[in-house]
Amino acid sequence: MADTKEFKRSPSRFTDRITADGAQGRPVEAGRYRLVVSRACPWANRSLIARRLLGLESAVSLAVTDPIQDERSWRFTLDPDGRDPVLGIRYLSEAYLAREPGYTGGVSVPAIVDEPSGVLVSNDYRNIPADLATEWTALHRDGAPDLYPRALREEIDAVAEDVFRDVNNGVYKCGFARDQGAYDRAFTALFDRLDALSERLAARRYLVGSAITVADINLFVTLVRFDAVYHGHFKCNRNKLTEMPVLWAYARDLFQTPGFGDTVDFDHIKRHYYEVHREINPSGIVPAGPDLSGWTTPHGREALPGTPFGDGTPPPPPPEAERVPPLR
Fold it and tell me: Where are the annotated segments for Disordered (predicted)?
């Protein structure tokens, strides 16, 4: 019987796929779709990184929500007049309602919205990055890396599943556990997995193969938030990331790789978690720390086998409108 005291993540409800052949009714088409993200959200960060690495900025437009939600969830209060300038909506929930009138479920990011109709296409956060890597190849930039190589997919999927269960979702299981037993189980599984990942990465630069894959993207988005929010806010406090030498070096290596750190906004991350999760942090006070300067220090992992982009090349700098504030 399932433990009702354990955090349960709801599955994505809208999982339409956008494919090269359009066989499922949603064809790949430049300029047709808008990716809606919160820079605070790790699940959205996955899609942001994939879009950057593959050079899809001009093919898939980007909307960034306010990191602070209200009772109607993600909102476009960062934009003039509080409306997304392309979709013309104030709340992402409006695209959900355009897809399913009367919808009362959760509103999550990332979300892909059909620009002409304003209808939500997908909120399938687990599969959007792999689809961007495999179905959108005709629109990839020259030199785009293969983030989901066919020969490695079985291993990538296996590693990604372990990371999702124990790390990506594991920190939430710790933070939102409703009794000591549920918390203890999640805490143990989280750090057992981090220890296993440290061992795996001790002699290899990336999780699977000799270049970055979606498996690395999946792990990075939790590691980059670990000390800023998960260690204290979610009580994941056996160690800080900075106290786990292999994972800290691995995370810095990725952060300093074009396409990773340039998608991360620590201000959005901290304000979202500490201000929105009032059941965990009733005061809404956002802590001043931690010191972020370590993210740009040398990591030494260039000595390990592998190169970030395989046979590909780094992405160019992000468009001016999509740049995040520098570390302070």
Answer: 285-328
Active-site position among 41, 148, 174, 274: 41
33-139 adopts what CATH topology?
Answer: Glutaredoxin (3.40.30)
Numbered residues of the known binding site for glutathione: 74
Contact 65, 37 (CB under 8 A): yes
295/23 Cα distance (integer angstroms): 43
Task: Kindly tell me if the per-residue pLDDT of 246 is higher than 50.
Answer: yes
| Cα gap 38→66, rounded to integer Å | 7
Closest by CA to 42, choosing from 147, 125, 120, is 125
| pLDDT the model gives residue 3 | 54
Is 236 catalytic? The answer is no
CATH of the domain spanning 150-322: 1.20.1050.10
List, as residue ranges, the binding site: 74
Q: What residues does each domain of the chain span?
A: 33-139, 150-322
Q: Evaluate if residue 8 carries a pLDDT over 70.
A: yes
- Please check whether residue 3 is in contact with residue 28, taking contact to mean a CB–CB distance below 8 angstroms: no
Which position among 91, 96, 172, 206 bears the catalytic label? Answer: 172
